[in-house]
């Protein structure tokens, strides 16, 4: 996906529509604005020309596990971010959009009230999607990164309030892409796990407790997929701030670089070393790291614990890292519905 000046001729990009996808999660508010891309790009299956993007950590689900409600402070933080998203969509002339909210709004007692306040304050109509839709969008957005020779692949998306796992199998002979064999969504994410066990100071015992908690949550999906064929090329496909952060740490990046991370392969040993390096950092060192920063420093080890649990329960020689997912899946589905791809 490449940046595109705002003045590009819409006619060169298919049907003249400008598309937007907004993903409001438990931790982040993310927006992508794009047009369909028909020309060959740097990688195969790159059908989006991104013309604007926005991402902000809003912690919408902060304290939700204890209170069962979205706090007033979190609502205000999020509405400020959504106002920026609205202004960007207006400035870019967006004509087709899908704006979704996920686990925090699904699980909060005042989720409907929050959606109504967003509509009143910003004019944006949020759609609270179910777990299956969230998993489908994630698979659509990054499934093209799966090894085409692998008989099956486990896609995982570690979010703030939930973790989605999607088992993808190779399409039948003569068909393209991947089929969604099975999926699950766990009410377990970096925010909920860090709030339960603590995220600033994570010693060996705390990390082990977090991992074991995630292992228990995964047990039912392990049983469900036990008979699915796994060839020698079986691998994990991760899309989330956890795995992209780990990739940045593995590469030794001073600042996060999407172009070096998206599509990166990490061996099992490389993933272990990156996690160990992160676990060896104290809170201040995580804050100072250019791939983590102050907003993720208390959450990243919770994400690592979930990733460790996935690796333990679904052993694989390698993991592919995706800096793409839900928003890209929404954009592709919108464009396909319009016949723009």
Automatic annotation (TrEMBL):
Tree of life domain: Bacteria
Ppx/GppA phosphatase N-terminal domain location: 44-336
Pfam families on file: Ppx-GppA (PF02541)
Name of the protein: Exopolyphosphatase
């Amino acid at each position: 996906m490449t940046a595109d000046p705002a003045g590009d001729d819409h006619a060169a990009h298919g049907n003249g529509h400008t598309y937007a996808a907004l993903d409001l999660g438990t931790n982040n508010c993310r927006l992508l604005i794009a047009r369909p891309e028909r020309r060959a790009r740097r990688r195969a299956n790159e059908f989006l020309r991104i013309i604007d993007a926005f991402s902000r950590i809003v912690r919408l689900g902060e304290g939700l596990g204890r209170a069962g409600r979205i706090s007033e402070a979190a609502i205000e933080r999020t509405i400020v971010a959504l106002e920026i998203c609205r202004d960007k969509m207006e400035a870019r002339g967006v004509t087709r959009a899908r704006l979704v909210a996920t686990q925090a709004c699904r699980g909060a007692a005042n989720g409907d009230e929050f959606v109504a306040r967003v509509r009143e304050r910003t004019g944006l109509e949020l759609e609270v999607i179910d777990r299956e839709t969230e998993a489908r969008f994630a698979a659509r957005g990054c499934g093209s990164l799966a090894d085409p020779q692998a008989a099956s692949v486990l896609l995982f998306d570690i979010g703030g309030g939930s973790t989605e796992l999607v088992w993808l199998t190779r399409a039948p002979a003569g068909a393209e892409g991947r089929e969604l064999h099975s999926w699950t969504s766990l009410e377990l994410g970096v925010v909920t796990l860090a709030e339960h066990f603590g995220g600033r100071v994570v010693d060996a015992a705390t990390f082990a407790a977090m991992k074991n908690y995630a292992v228990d949550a995964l047990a039912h999906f392990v049983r469900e997929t036990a008979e699915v064929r796994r060839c020698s090329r079986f691998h994990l496909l991760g899309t989330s701030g956890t795995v992209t952060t780990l990739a940045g740490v593995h590469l030794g990046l001073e600042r996060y670089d999407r172009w070096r991370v998206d599509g990166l392969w990490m061996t099992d040993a490389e993933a272990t070393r990156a996690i160990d390096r992160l676990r060896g950092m104290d809170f201040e060192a995580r804050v100072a790291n250019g791939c983590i920063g102050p907003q993720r420093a208390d959450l990243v080890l919770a994400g690592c614990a979930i990733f460790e649990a996935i690796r333990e329960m679904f052993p694989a020689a390698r993991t592919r890292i995706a800096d793409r997912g839900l928003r890209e899946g929404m954009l592709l589905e919108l464009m396909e519905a319009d016949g723009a791809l």
